[in-house]
């Protein structure tokens, strides 16, 4: 599942393969850009911005893409067989003399002027893995809507950019609160830890092939995708429920013993859970 660390890794692979080299192949397989041709232009750099990828080329143009759930960029050496999926799932091909980058199943793909990149990513909050990271601003963004459940606020890329559903669940576990706890109910000291811990998690994983939050051998994650297995800390069965803001429901995992705050009742409403207060 692509999150900020995954996209950062994709940007690094693309940058290493393409930056400083001239494109000899350019093939956009979406109707809007079917006639676009970037051949003869050098790739300047590839940068991640939250979960967005910006591939900048000579002439003031940027290929903007977003992976969402199923998209991916694959890099192949000259003569190497492509293996990212069937040909009908390819959305764009960018090739140099020795490397070819192929974008599969990209739900967002556009060619825009580099000067207009803010139109695509200007709405994003501070990037957890970017040079614009600002924990104070991220915290202020999160606390701007105190009634909003923490899990939803963390997924809102306008607050801070880079957290997906996996980190949402793991971060809430490490904080000891459920994803349904209103942001305003977080004690100030605990609230201040949210952006700091989020950055620590993503930075620790941006160079790893397998995402890990536990530090335990053989157990990569505390709660995500572990229901109904026992909690690694207390042994209670991990719970699973959907959480969403109405636009999309996301599977959400938590430990009802280790995490304080509201949790869904039968029927999907958030209730008091086990009734423990937030420490």
From TrEMBL:
Its EC number is 4.2.99.18. Keywords: DNA damage, DNA repair, DNA-binding, Glycosidase, Hydrolase, Lyase, Metal-binding, Multifunctional enzyme, Zinc, Zinc-finger. It catalyses: 2'-deoxyribonucleotide-(2'-deoxyribose 5'-phosphate)-2'-deoxyribonucleotide-DNA = a 3'-end 2'-deoxyribonucleotide-(2,3-dehydro-2,3-deoxyribose 5'-phosphate)-DNA + a 5'-end 5'-phospho-2'-deoxyribonucleoside-DNA + H(+). Gene3D superfamilies: 1.10.8.50, MutM-like, N-terminal. Residues 2-103 form the Formamidopyrimidine-DNA glycosylase catalytic domain. It is an enzyme of class 4 (lyase). Residues 222-260 form the FPG-type domain. Belongs to the FPG family. This is DNA-(apurinic or apyrimidinic site) lyase. The lineage of its organism: Bacteria, Bacillati, Actinomycetota, Actinomycetes, Kitasatosporales.
């Amino acid at each position: 599942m692509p999150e900020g660390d995954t996209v950062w890794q994709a940007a690094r692979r693309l940058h290493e393969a393409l930056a400083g080299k001239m494109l000899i192949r350019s093939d956009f397989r979406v109707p809007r850009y079917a006639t676009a041709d970037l051949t003869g232009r050098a790739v300047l750099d590839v940068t991640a911005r939250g979960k967005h990828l910006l591939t900048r080329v000579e002439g003031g143009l940027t290929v903007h893409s977003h992976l969402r759930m199923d998209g991916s960029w694959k890099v192949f050496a000259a003569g190497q067989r492509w293996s990212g999926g069937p040909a009908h799932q390819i959305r764009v091909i960018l090739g140099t003399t020795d490397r070819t980058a192929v974008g599969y199943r990209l739900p967002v793909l556009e060619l825009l002027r580099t000067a207009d990149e803010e139109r695509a990513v200007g709405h994003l909050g501070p990037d957890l893995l970017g040079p614009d990271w600002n924990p104070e601003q991220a915290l202020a963004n999160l606390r701007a809507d105190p009634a909003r459940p923490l899990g939803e606020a963390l997924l809102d890329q306008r607050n801070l950019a880079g957290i997906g559903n996996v980190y949402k669940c793991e971060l809430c576990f490490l904080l000891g609160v459920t994803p349904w706890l209103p942001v305003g109910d977080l004690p100030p000291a605990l609230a201040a830890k949210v952006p700091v811990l989020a950055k620590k998690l993503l930075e620790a994983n941006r160079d790893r092939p397998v995402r890990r939050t536990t530090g335990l051998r053989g157990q990569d994650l505390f709660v995500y995708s572990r229901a109904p297995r026992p909690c690694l800390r207390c042994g209670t069965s991990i719970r699973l429920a959907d959480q969403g803001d109405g636009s999309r429901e996301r599977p959400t995992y938590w430990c009802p013993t280790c995490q304080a705050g509201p949790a869904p009742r039968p029927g999907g409403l958030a209730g008091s859970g086990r009734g423990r207060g937030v420490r």
